[in-house]
Amino acid sequence: MKKAVSLMMAAAMTMGLAACGSTASTDTAASAADTASSTEAAASTADSTVAADGKVYNIGICQLVQHEALDAATQGFKDALAEKLGEGSVKFDEQNASGDSANCATIVNGFVSNGVDLILANATAPLQAAAQATADIPVLGTSITDYATALDISDWTGTVGNNISGTSDLAPLDQQAAMIQELFPDAKSVGLLYCSAEPNSVYQCDVIEGYLTEEGYTVARYAFTDTNDVTSVAQTAADNSDVIYIPTDNTAASNTEAIANVVIPAKVPVVAGEEGICSGCGVATLSISYYDLGYATGEMAAKILADGADVSAMPVEFAPNVTKKYNAANCEALGITPPSDYVAIG
């Protein structure tokens, strides 16, 4: 009899615990439903390109190397997609190639094998690797100076015409040449310091050399092949130049401290093609916002993924604005007073 009573009490307790668990589960579910409802309501007020079917887009990001400009472009891209498609609608596989073209090929081939919905190629080498890896997956480049040079296109019309488009970081090279003339009217020689392994750096030097020659400067080129000879080549450039110009060059951007250790003691000013290089070793630049450039690329991606835009018909876009900027510390060290319309790099 005692055993029977014990069993009945145990059963009653079990039912009570089950009821408590059911209540807690119901409360949690209700809370989750309320949260989901609030999130859904918030999402409905966001951009119209938010995926209505709950699809999660997988995007592979291959960035050549870590430095300020490329980092900003990647962040702008991600922020644009999060805003346009919703935080939970995009999954990023973000990988850095550490400056190695072979790594770019490995990374991008991995994206293709995994069947990503879109590839962001941040810099020239990743773009070239993506062009070799796939003709089907949409590829958007950013931080690319000249697509015709990068992809060996002879009859450039503004669109690549296949599964590739994107944004260019090319600031007006004629205005950069004019900046050198404005800041250093008494200079006689300009050295072009760049990485010969980067096709877009070669392109920029080809173009700006013409403008500088027209302005009466003697122009010489000083090319390094990789990080190992940056210091020695920079020293040769400093020894033979009144002013040095560095284009938007990823190898230079990753070695600004080494360059600064040469040019600042030598009292040779550097005009740079972009703000990140100027921040490290330059005195002035005609700068674009790499974050804005990446953001514009993200907007292009949203149109492709959510609206079905044809990437082959999308023209390559450029940064909307350029700004004259100066490096206050380096200008002070070299005794340079920039004009009033220049903005100090923050």
UniProtKB/TrEMBL annotation:
It holds the Pfam family ABC_sub_bind. InterPro entries: ABC_transpt-TYRBP-like, Peripla_BP_I. Keywords: Signal. Residues 1-18 form the signal peptide. Gene3D superfamilies: 3.40.50.2300. The keyword Signal applies. This is Putative ABC transport system substrate-binding protein. It comes from Gemmiger formicilis. The lineage of its organism: Bacteria, Bacillati, Bacillota, Clostridia, Eubacteriales.
